[in-house]
Amino acid sequence: MEKASSNLSIGIDFAYPFRLYQVSFEAPVCEGIRRERVFLIGDYSSSAEFFVTIAVFAFLYSLVATIVYIFFQNKYRENNRGPLIDFIVTVVFSFMWLVSSSAWAKALSDVKLATDPDEVQLLISACKTQTNKCGSLHGARWSGLNTSVAFGFLNFVLWAGNIWFVFKETGWHKGAARLAGGPSEKQAGTFTQEPYNQGSFDQTGSYNTQGNLGQPSEYSQVGGPTSYSNQM
What global pTM score does this model have? Predict the structure, then answer.
């Protein structure tokens, strides 16, 4: 292959949803000026689309929830249905953010590996010839995709932290707080008794244990000494 008749620059463009098997590029071959079409390997669209879907639905739900909190606060607090639905949806979205972010992080790692210049060179037949030297001028820019993974896990932290605040609005939390405060209030009300007074204990209505022990006895003698006289 002659350098003068060969275009040595090869550009590969790939983007969302990262169906790499559909991405192709033309590479020069050693036989004359003929060029071959080479396709990348891999399909990572499922993880990418799943991540984006969760992000879109989470944004729409957050928008609707904000409108309800601002303009329909009274209806939201009328019964336990609104806070309960909000709590369940928040838990579900927290879990889905964790799953989708983990899946997208793994898929992004595989995309980086599949598009690595050293891996792509193995797909080009001209690069398999030892007399030809293939190399990369610059690699792909991953800053935007790395940021998306970081924001995915950050959203999981935010949604998981919001579970507690939503749970406080449900009847479950209010019922538990009512049950926790009930026994203490009951004890404070039932243990207020009058002090025990031994003298006031009256079983039949007239018994008093603190009687006057100094009252005069009926068996005291009155008068002088007794005298005996016989009458004849």
Answer: 0.68
